[in-house]
Fold this sequence. Notes:
226 residues, Glutaconate Coenzyme A-transferase, three-stranded antiparallel sheet, 6 helices, 12 strands, 28% strand, globular
Amino acid sequence: MQSINEDKYLKKIISAKEAAKLIKSNSAVMVGGFLSCGAPDEIIDELINTDVKNLTMICNDTSFEDADKGKLIKYGLVKKVITTHIGTNPVTGQKMHNGEIEVEFYPMGTLVEKIHAKGSGLGGVLTPTGIGTILEQGKKIVEIKGKKYIFEEPLGADFAIIYGTKVDKYGNVKFEGTTRNFNTSMATAADVVIVQADEIVDCINPDEVVIPGIFIDYVVERGGNK
Length: 226
């Protein structure tokens, strides 16, 4: 019986600094985390030290002024944010009102379904959320059985930087508690996916895998060699 060459399934383990260097100016970048819960903070800290600019950041929120995603706003790496709320970061609101960044808002469920649509290869999603509000302006409205829906296109990105509690050498990801949040959806919808792991292990029990390694391109160990 021919043995399986496991080496081809191994993921490249890199430092946070190397991960940051992969991301180029003018890219669309999904960033995981709900506020600071499950956010890839070390990769973000290294990204700030690069000369990257004009990013489009796709995220649930812009966190806090001096924390993870919020730092990307504060230090001027972002030209546009696609998000659900910015209320915990006054710098985002200030820059939006000053015309320094563009902010595109979606209801949280709509944003995640747009990401799901991209990850699943769908042509879009229909949602009744926002009908009769400014959210429907400029959007295609579809009526089915007398009920109106907004058609939302899929949303993908060039890169996704996400978090995992434990990641094995094959890229399989396990989460503790609510840290999975947007990370699981974003892993399916970007061209290059980088996961920051609290711990890298040899193998994760298949019953505990939340994100299969097939979606992961690079693994960064938290606290590893930068």
